[in-house]
Design brief:
GO terms for molecular function: diguanylate cyclase activity. It is a single chain. By secondary structure, the protein is an alpha+beta fold. It has two domains: 305 residues, no CATH class; 160 residues, 2-Layer Sandwich (Alpha-Beta Plaits), CATH 3.30.70. The strands form two sheets. The chain has a five-stranded mixed beta sheet with strand order 2-3-1-6-7, sandwiched between helices. Helix 2 packs across helix 4 and helix 9 packs antiparallel against helix 10. It is elongated and about 95 Å long. The termini are far apart.
Length: 486
């Protein structure tokens, strides 16, 4: 006989092993590609102008904790070394540089774990402060490691002095971390449908901050003076207020990289000089600090918008069933009715009432009654289409409004509701289940009338009374709506 728990652990272990293999392969490709890009952009023989690999690997290990594994560190080390060795680098030097890169990643992982066990995200002002602390400490530790190992392996690289190289190394790690790591930590956000620009004028206004940023970055590149890195700041702050946190992170990274590249190209004539090293250190430090501003504003704005959405949801939804409450249903239903009237679209309104619901509360208690309401709302919601408006208008009374639906389809939906509710089973005492039924009154118009939603609900309510009088668990259609259908 098989030990089921042992078999389950074996299958789970095999599954986790395959998952780890897939993640390791993906990590190896990304780190190798990012390292190869860095190697190809090295202006001074060993230090890349832009080195995204460390922040990229740190973000992967934070988002996929399974990668924080001995095999993960080994694969990352080999992926770091491979591009150097491909271009004829010395194995010992390649190992020293790869080890130094892993120091940055390891310190970042340890610090974020100290902040909390959850996967970190960049969505609050505190998370921006955490990002800054992590990048500063990780950059410092990486710099110490690099100065120790690389100076021993390649002392001629420190001709400009240990102080200059330390500042160069530290600011390089810092700016790469601040620009790349947020790309890995921000969440994908789904904007509400009503937040999407629909008209051309709205679209142009929506794109205006990004266009202003492009102009600002171009002006900064043309000017190229000491204060040029501050030129795009107003546009970046506008983008942070207008767009999502992720969009702001992307725009900030792109703008910063363009500015850093354009200024570095201008300083190529000063290569290997102390003035060049000082300028590059100052530019990188300035760009890293400038990037924190829009990131913080975007997080504050995102947190505010999320809080407002939560308040709006609580103000318009029933806390028990999670469907629209009476006020929310009337507001959204009236808006749908006005759209249907302007578009000459058909409309149907249904009023649903759970049969003998008072007896449920009296015989089984209000806790069971609440569970019946939750289950009822769930099964009715499962029969509806996207865009239909569903709400709780009273104790056990609910209502639905449909736009662009013919009478036959509306009747079919109502019959599906009857069947779905009849199949709903609610647990009660002694392992028993309780089943309920629903009566439905419907008002349907081939063209949405111009009157208020209250009038349509009154029509449907009259049909509901007839459904109850005729024995319940049935659908009745308002007489006025039948005349309108002819």
């Amino acid at each position: 006989m098989y030990n089921k728990s042992a078999v389950g652990r074996f299958v789970a272990g095999k599954s986790q092993g395959y998952q780890l293999l897939i993640y390791l392969s993906l990590m190896a490709l990304l780190v190798f590609g990012a390292s190869l890009f860095g190697v190809l952009t090295r202006p001074f023989g060993f230090m890349a102008a832009f080195w995204p690999a460390n922040a990229l690997l740190l973000g992967l290990m934070l988002r996929i904790p399974l990668l924080v594994h001995p095999m993960g560190w080994l694969v990352a080390l080999l992926a770091y070394m491979a591009p150097d060795l491909m271009f004829g680098g010395q194995p010992l030097l390649a190992f020293s540089l790869a080890f130094t890169n892993l120091v940055f990643v390891a310190v970042g992982v340890l610090l974020y774990r100290r902040f909390g066990p959850d996967i970190p995200t960049l969505d609050t002002p505190a998370s921006v402060l955490q990002l800054l602390v992590v990048c500063i400490v990780a950059a410092f530790c990486s710099t110490v490691s690099g100065l120790t190992l690389v100076r021993w392996c390649a002392p001629d690289w420190f001709a400009s002095g240990v102080g200059h190289m330390a500042g160069f190394w530290f600011t390089s790690e810092l700016v790469n971390g601040i620009l790349i790591l947020p790309l890995m930590l921000t969440r994908f956000e789904r904007r509400a449908d009503n937040a999407q620009p629909t008209e051309r004028s709205d679209l142009l206004f929506h794109l205006l901050p990004a266009a202003t940023l492009c102009v600002s970055v171009a002006l900064a590149a043309i000017w190229n003076g000491p204060g040029s890195i501050g030129v795009p700041v107003p546009a970046l702050l506008w983008c942070a207020l207008q767009y999502s946190t992720r969009a702001t992170v992307v725009l900030t990274a792109l703008a910063s990289l363009v500015m850093m590249s354009s200024i570095s190209v201008t300083l190529q004539g000063l290569e290997q000089s102390d003035a060049h090293m000082d300028a590059i250190i100052s530019i990188r430090l300035g760009i890293a600090l400038v990037a924190l501003g829009p990131l913080t504003v975007a997080c504050v704005n995102g947190a505010r918008n999320e809080l407002l959405q939560r308040f709006e949801y609580l103000a318009s939804h029933d806390h028990l069933t999670a469907v629209l409450d009476r006020g929310g249903f009337f507001a959204r239903g009236q808006h749908l009715l006005e759209n249907a009237s302007s578009g000459s679209s058909s409309v149907a309104v249904m009023v649903l009432d759970i049969d003998h619901f008072k007896a449920v509360n009296d015989n089984h208690g209000h806790a069971v009654g609440d569970e019946v309401l939750r289950g009822f709302a769930r099964v009715i919601g499962g029969t509806l289409r996207d865009g239909d408006v569903f709400g709780r208008t009273g104790g056990e009374e609910f209502a639905v409004i449909f736009e662009g639906i013919n009478r036959e389809i509306a009747m079919g939906l109502a019959q599906r509701m009857l069947a779905a509710v009849a199949e709903l089973k609610t647990p009660v005492a002694n392992d028993q289940t309780l089943q309920v039924t629903v009566s439905i009154g419907m008002a349907w118009h081939a063209q949405a009338p111009l009157n208020e939603l209250d009038d349509l609900l009154a029509e449907a309510d009259k049909a509901l009374y007839r459904a109850k009088a005729a024995g319940r668990n049935r659908v009745e259609v308002a007489e006025l709506s039948q005349a309108a259908a002819v």
